[in-house]
């Protein structure tokens, strides 16, 4: 905080709030450490991941090569008819949009598909960690009508504790766990896929 | 100051519509059952609750230090941290930021804090319209209502009513009530709002002291879309949203969605560490608004553990039947009945009584807030503050006199038994006796317990007391 700000009402409030909190000492329990032995572990993390992903509305495919990804996608009508594709996995799907040539994220509004790379999956909840550093524009994950994520099937952790340990110290910027397609149940608890983000999530599991 | 609204009075219309009350009850129980399925799928569920409660207690005890650690780390990442002592200051800060950025189109994802502060109304008075982008919140906003639940804002509204609202505001076909079609219409309508937004406002689910980052979770992707397009992101958070360490998120992301909607995790769990790029801005507004006072109380401090999952509402027999609006508070249900009186005991004095003390809320709470104990404790506080209403106060006084005078007690018992026997139903069941609505009076016993005891136990001592 700079010097000129110390006399502003906000700086005053900052002091007021901190004084209130410091004015009353409260007995504090120690900060606990998680005991890994207490946590669920799956015999077959990959299968668990696939099953959970299906439960949350996503679809998964075990593939042996990036070419196979293109083959599976081209069987989908919504992919065949796509004209605007962003891809950070060019060995699987060639992009139609040059992401590096785009300055304004609004220009990605017409995106039909985004093909992105995931770092790892989480067996207990079907979530995939996407590192923002791999995305020229983070909006590509949310604005595309359909989303495909490519991860290695060797890279599946059991649960979120392992997931956060694996991320370690987060880099400045952005990172997101994606578990299934965008959804809502705000109208009478009826589940509808495709709220504001992707209508469909295809996950490709490479060796 | 809020008008004093009695919960039973405010719930009357909702409760009297029996089919609707049952429909509401069933909808929430459905969510509760989904929650049970998820919590039971994890052998470590109770262990996680214990960890979460301890982490939160530790954080709240050391809140001043953690807030400063967060502030320093967030600033290092390029975010601007603002401090608001109360709701009015929060609103002024946000308004100022909007003016500085010449912003007219505001897109906001779900934030109970901005509801608590009345941000939308405040900005509207300043001529700035805010579009709520969560589907449920957009529905209630278009209807000129407020959310009736913190996770499921439109849980009280039927799909036919949503259809009418969308027909009026979004031009959908009259009579359309298919959730799929209505959601698609909202998607199209809100896409244009997202693309036209000058500033994105979000709440915060967790803020991490150690890293200076914030976490926002949604299923719809509205928070993420809303802040990935405009240059400016304003994140508003209560000061209790902190966790000390990055890996503490492991505990809370496992508990939150399972408790809230019975999902293993929300669709999107977004982690923001600093602004998007050098041309963008991230502002984080830290709001006290009464939280530090709650922290002062040994009895009610644990209510600051709350991660706003709504599980206590979904399980509460009173909430399920009376609807969220009957609480006349931003946060309804059991946790709202604890937090409301903390904010304004007089305005919310009836809420701690909107509770049967069944304890189900305490059992499901993922951060182990002893909710029903706190509701009982509030009743004591309200009596101490002389805020108990007249009928309860007189009743309590009368009972006290009765129990202090054995002869009077005997006489009252005799009169009661006799009255029950001889009074005609027309006299006991009339509009002056509210208790007798839907209830029958008990059959009077032939004799009092004392008379029975005198007859059966005074001549010969029972075996075991010799």
Automatic annotation (TrEMBL), chain A:
Record's PANTHER family?
LACTATE UTILIZATION PROTEIN C (PTHR43682)
Q: A Pfam family in this protein?
A: LUD_dom
Q: Which domain of life is it from?
A: Bacteria
User: Where is each LUD domain found?
Assistant: 111-206
Q: Tell me what gene encodes this.
A: lutC
Designated name of the protein:
Lactate utilization protein C
The species is Allorhodopirellula solitaria
InterPro entries to which the protein is assigned, alphabetical: FTHF_cligase-like_sf, LUD_dom, NagB/RpiA_transferase-like
UniProtKB/TrEMBL annotation, chain B:
Q: Name the Gene Ontology biological process terms.
A: lactate metabolic process
Q: Which GO terms describe its molecular function?
A: 4 iron, 4 sulfur cluster binding; metal ion binding
Q: Does the keyword Oxidoreductase apply?
A: no
Question: InterPro entries recorded for this chain?
Answer: 4Fe4S_Fe-S-bd, 4Fe4S_Fe_S_CS, FTHF_cligase-like_sf, Helical_ferredxn, LUD_dom, LutB/LldF, NagB/RpiA_transferase-like
Q: Does the UniProt entry include the keyword 4Fe-4S?
A: yes
Q: Which Gene3D superfamilies match?
A: Alpha-helical ferredoxin (1.10.1060.10), NagB/RpiA/CoA transferase-like (3.40.50.10420)
For this UniProt record, the keywords arranged alphabetically read as follows: 4Fe-4S, Electron transport, Iron, Iron-sulfur, Metal-binding, Repeat, Transport
Provide the 4Fe-4S ferredoxin-type domain boundaries: 297-326, 345-375
The cross-references to PANTHER family, in alphabetical order and at most eight, read: LACTATE UTILIZATION PROTEIN B
| Name under which the protein is recorded | Lactate utilization protein B
This protein's species is Allorhodopirellula solitaria
What gene is behind this protein?
lutB
